[in-house]
Specification:
About 35% of the residues are buried. The protein contains ten helices and four strands, in the order H-H-E-E-H-H-H-H-E-H-E-H-H-H. The chain has helices at about 1-20, 25-35, 70-75, 75-85, 100-105, 115-120, 145, 155-160, 170-180, 185-200, and strands at about 45-50, 55-60, 125, 155. It has one domain (about 1-200). By secondary structure, it is mostly helical. Helix 1 packs across helix 6.
Amino acid sequence: MKTYLLLKRFLDIVLSIVALVVLSPIFLVVSILDRIGDNKGPLFYRQVRIGLNGKSFKIIKFRSMVVNADERLRANPELYQEYIKNSYKLPEGRDPRITSLGHFLRKTSVDEIPQFINVLKGEMALIGPRPVVEEELSEYGKRVDKLLSVKPGAMGYWQASGRSNIGYPQRCEIELFYVDHASLSFDIKIFFKNIISIFRSEGAY
């Protein structure tokens, strides 16, 4: 296991550096488009997520929503309840916070690219359970410690299995299955399944 974790971290560093260099033109393009239309505001969106051993960190994404989107959601009790009931995500087409550019960024998963920065910093791994917001921890009940025993990932088995098309409690079983079976071969399999899922835009909205 120790050898696997060392190799996993080595690959995380190398692949995240390569990805950030190769995909750097996208940062420029998105920054230009960010100044057009209804998407004006900060280029990046940072949200507190729960990571390894319960330590919180700020996940980095290209901003796909209006400024102060989280505050607007909580200020609307009806919308917030719908968000909770729908596995902490509003149904496709029901989220008024998403900008016109944001729809494209989410559908293509381009909004996720800055997470390679989180991977490089060691807050996330390339492969692992998706990092959750604090409210989602309750979904794991007594098994929450198992979820938090590994680093969250930029790509994961849940994403490869259908992403937002799969809600709780099924998502718990998928994420914990990965924790129980984590290995280099499984990580490679999940990586390629995620690539295929991204090109098919499965569960991305």
